[in-house]
Amino acid sequence: MSAASVLAEEFEVLESIYPTELSVISDREIEIDVEPDYPVEGMESFRLKLSVKYSDDYPEALPTLALEAVEGDINESEKEALLQGMATIGEENLGMAMTFTLVSYLKEHLSTLAEARISLRIAEEREKERLALEAEEARTRGTPVTVESFKTWKMKFDKDVAMKKAKDEEEKLRALTPKEREEYKRIGTRLTGRQLFERNRNLAHEDDSLMEEGTVSVDVSQYDRTKIDEEEDHIHFSDSE
């Protein structure tokens, strides 16, 4: 049987199997719209066009195959993997009409590809959720405080407070007249109530230390008031005075 007769017979069979999907371009070229063998939940519409060009040596030689996305998309690595898979199947079926076998392989592996895409999408979404959760936990947990980190923070805090105080003081002085500025500085040198208290207490301790050893302190309240009164009764004034 001639190659033309083999192709004519095969085209007739393919038209009966794929009445709406098959397009006969010429006596040596066809196109078939191919969808996944079974629907995949969560997968949007996905359909490819398989172009098949037969040589004079078909079916003893592989036809030339090409893929094009009709609905959805397919990247070059996915396309290359599918074409390589069909070529392998074609090698195993040399000498026989192989178009139906090639289309069946493509339909099955489109379903596998769709499942892999869904799994990848789910994995990516879970990874995003995990990263978002870790980021939120880190935000609410904050940075653990250690003795060293607290000292570093305290030094910076004290420095910032001192700088702000100095800046406020400078701005305040700048707004005063020279006379007011002098009076403000003089008032600033006065001791506060607490400072005066601390100073007097220290002076009292210093006075105590200056007392001679063996000196006895006297409590005036212990004197007998009656003796004083008796002494006052013995005082006489002369008439001449």
From TrEMBL:
Query: Where does the RWD domain start and stop, copy by copy?
Result: 9-113
Q: Among its keywords, does the record have Coiled coil? A: yes
The biased composition feature labelled Basic and acidic residues covers: 222-241
Recite the UniProt keywords alphabetically: Coiled coil
* Keyword Coiled coil set for record: yes
Q: Which domain of life is it from?
A: Eukaryota
* Segments forming a coiled coil: 106-141
Q: Where is this region: Disordered?
A: 208-241
- This chain belongs to which protein, by name? RWD domain-containing protein
